[in-house]
Amino acid sequence: xxxxxxxxxxxxxxGIGEAVALLLAKKGYxxxxxxxxxxxxxxxxxx
Length: 47
Hints:
The chain is built from two helices and two strands, in the order βαβα. By secondary structure, the chain is an alpha+beta fold. The chain has one domain. α1 (15-26) links the parallel β1 (6-10) and β2. The chain is elongated and about 35 Å long. The termini are far apart.
């Protein structure tokens, strides 16, 4: 069984948190994201 990488990122709706989320998503990580701005978080989910 292969280990799946999961990363939790707080503040993922902007700034460094958003950049890290996008970078890790491109590398195939599974992400658990939190943010205060729900609409911005939903826009990241679409990417």
